[in-house]
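Consider the following assembly input.
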Amino acid sequence: MMKEFSFALYAIKKNIQSSAELRTSFLLNILGMSINNTAFIILWGFFVKSVGVIGGWTVSDIIGLQGFVALCFGIVFSAGAGIRKLADDTASGAFDRFMLSPKNLLVRVATSSFSVSALGDVAFGIVCLGIYLVLIHASIIQLMLTAFLILITVIVFLSATIAVYSMSFYFTDADSVTRSLFELFLTPALFHGGAFQGTMRFIFTFIIPSLLIGTLPVEIVSHVSWQKFLFVSVLAMIWFVVSLGIFHHAIKKYESSNFMTFGS
Amino acid sequence: MESNSIIVSRLTKKFSFSAKNASSGWIKNLFFPEKKEIVAVNDISFSVKHGERIAFIGPNGAGKSTTIKMLTGILFPTSGMVTILGLDPTKDRKKLAYQIGTVFGQRSQLLPNLPLTDSLEFFGVMYDMSDEEIQKRIRELTELFDLGSYISQPVRKLSLGQRMRAEVAASLMHKPKIILLDEPTIGLDVVAKKSLRDLLLKINREEQTTIFLTSHDVGDIESLCDRTIIINHGIVIKDLPTQDLAKTFVYEKYIDLVAQNNFEVFPKLPNGIRYSLQEKNKVTVVVDVNQISVQDSLKILLSLFEVEDVNVYSADLETVIRHIYETDSIGN
């Protein structure tokens, strides 16, 4: 276990070195993503100002939601960007090199690539959560809940990503299938949390875990709801186990191919 | 040492795919496509002894790469069994990875944006080697593969020949007992090819590494491998010492006839002699010595053609291999 962890850290370090080689791209990506995300939050700010409070959600809650989603997105896709390349890797046969590795397959895949732009999301997520916690005058308990919920949202996001990109092994046109499925998961996660009631709330909690990475964490922190915290934690663990099962089942479908590819 | 490094028993791999049915409408084809199946590897069996150098050859689409991918655990067999150094690649993928090295000519395992030394170090860390072991092994491989002049260059800046040497070096970082190479000399010039073959022979001699390679290059087979397994249509059609392969068509002799003036007509030849090449300045015929002697053939040919020069020779290995592929294709 320690060897796997140590190798994962080493691989991430090498990926960062590899990305840092292309410094201009590195800096432009971070700047670009920060501008993009800030524009998004300003848009939601204007929306709330014009429409008013919906389902008890204020501007600060939306900032918190953007913070949680951006942070888990950024953490998973900076260090584990390789998962996002599964569709390409399986289609081109580049996945072969992971099968030849003596390391845990998922760790090897995830740490095979590093997304520079995702670091912009990490920075943006931290800033948003900081603003959110200041706006709600967060107590020590709310600060601790936020810290735990960052970990939980990362687990849910990672699980959903693994499950979605494992579909790469089942479809010929995996790229478009996985992209659509991933949008189906991510887009609702960024919506105004007050919009999800009744059936919609059920679907995007139990079937598609979009609300677990933004809406529910904000509600937990805002209302200090231990019941919801426990509920989200249990669902996160279930999603993690299920996603690992899906991945290990899926790799048996791998058929390789003979396109020219490079390593990482 | 007589123990087997590789045992393949009744190995089969089938691939299924959706195919368009011309008689159905596009909606039916879109939602309910017809499923077809191809048998890439069909019930093959062979074994490889420790330290052997095997050429696993066949025409394109014969099942070579599919077999090598099943041996390394990349693909799961449809049926049959593979044992590599006592391990089952489908169940012991990680353990097996510590024992084997792989080189795919069309697929790099190196880190493109970083210096070559980083890729070698990466492999060392991946195989749980200590820092000291990694540095020692990098020094050994740098010397063995003569990597010194470009080890600090980013991999993407290396020439193809340099990169292939680096690929083989990286695959040997953890001192594997078996190295499997899929077309390692593809695209290399003659000098780079020879250099790579010499290196492989050297590691086989010095580290007793078993070599299992697929190649379309006869030079790889002739100069590297002591045994050749030929696969076609997913079936092993020949498994014999490489030196015996050249004798497979020993009953055939080739005769080149160089024209004194241009050949204008190409008369019908008697039984046992057939044209292999018909050009105005040169004719090549194949003589089946079981039917007609070389001496009689020459008498007939010299009476039919006005020649400036004659050359009699046995088939080279490339011709033998081509002949085997063609004979097998006709048989199928």
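Residues 4-245 of chain B form a domain with the Rossmann fold fold (CATH 3.40.50.300). Ask yourself how this observation constrains the way the partners meet.
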